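Practice problem: predict the structure.
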Amino acid sequence: MGIITSITYQKIKFMNSSILLSVIIPVYNGEKCIGKCLDSILSQDSCDVPFEIIIIDDGSKDKTSEICKNIKNNTITLQPFSKRTPE
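Answer:
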């Protein structure tokens, strides 16, 4: 998973109403980089668009979900998901 270091946001208007921007991050065993990824997104100061961050965790066996849960921000939703077969 690559780390997002810079995002340019533009005000999105559709029929005179603002649209919520969704940042969707699929992750599997990403404990080494998910914190930096989320910090990068949350530190964007040029964002005038309301946004949410949705993390799709595909059954990580490391501390990915713990790291996501420990970041105190109401824009983050952790969605457990698994299509992997049990080992």
